[in-house]
Amino acid sequence: MRITVEAFVQDDRTRAAVDAVSDDVRMRRSRVNVHGGGLAEAPAVLARTESPDLLILESDKHSDGMMDELDAVADYVAPESSVIVIGIDDSIALYRQLVGMGVADYLVGPPSEEDLLDAVLRVGSSEADQALAPVVAVMGVRGGVGSSTLACNLAYKLGRDISGEVVLVDLDISSGTAAINLNLSPRQSAADILGQPDMLDSAAFERYMQRYDDHLVLLGSTAQLDIAFRPPSDVLEALLNVLRRQYDVVVLDLPRQWSVWVRDLLLDASAVVLVAYPDLSNLRDVQKMTTFLTEKRKMSLPTCVVLNKVGMAQKAELAAKDFEDVLGRAPTASVPFEPVPFGQALNNGEPVLKKSSSKTFVRSIDQLAESLHLDLKPGTRASRKARKGLLAQLLSGGGKDGKKKKRGA
Asked: Which CATH superfamily is domain 131-381 in?
């Protein structure tokens, strides 16, 4: 979210709540200024500045006095600015009166951090932003743990679960394997798209995508060794927003590197999946990453830990309980080491889930998908595309069977 916020607070507890909102990862691209003096101080400050995207106004007066203060500030608020009012009266009538005046929300003060954040995110997001598809970021805490295979199968499962379209984006530009896993041969990658930002709003964007089936689309990697992939954050954000408008879920297969752009994708994702092998070095790295992400992303955004290739070297491995003791919670799922079905799937260029006889693997992916807590709207984009295609067919004179009708028939 990128908005400007001016908050005029009366109570120290409200100031603390605003500070907590400002620190939330979802607000890190926004600018939040906090002023004392409450609603009464707002006219003097707003007279010297541009009206922000969002105003938070707190008053310690009862309804009549608060209305007088709102009248005084009205001349300095642009029509496109949203307003959240915090007051002392717990009154449905007052709430309805304020909403009728155009106030976006009314909270009884001092509000909790959670209530204020919820209001700011809801009011500060446009309808278009709220309709964007969720993003799942999948990353291995160390190389070779099988995160790409897991990302591929997760994307495959989600598409079928919602009867919609999921896009799998391979952002390991130099050595990504998502295309190999699906037996596809991408000619261009995300690096090529990001090098031509004008492509993000054109129909030519579709040429970069490769379809595996009705539910899974790939933006693959071409394994280019001569590219230094350092995408600007605003261009990368624009690419993701295009994908989030076009598809029902976006699954990111991230490279194992701790760069600014990878960190930002992890922080912004609706859910994060960290894949680890059950040994000591993986435990150390997953502890560092979960600590960082939990602190920055807050508890409302899930970070899932998946142990992969469990049983590959039994005597040298740590148990899931060891991870639970260190992380403070059990791993979301444990995927067994099963070289035969995984090898066959790779050779066939298809997800393991497509023909897997492993009930354990199927159960692990089911557990992971449920733990993501995604707000999914089944098939909305797929059905919209179908309606659009049918409408175009009918307008061109074709029937439902695709055959053009004769005039006068």
From this structure: P-loop containing nucleotide triphosphate hydrolases (3.40.50.300)
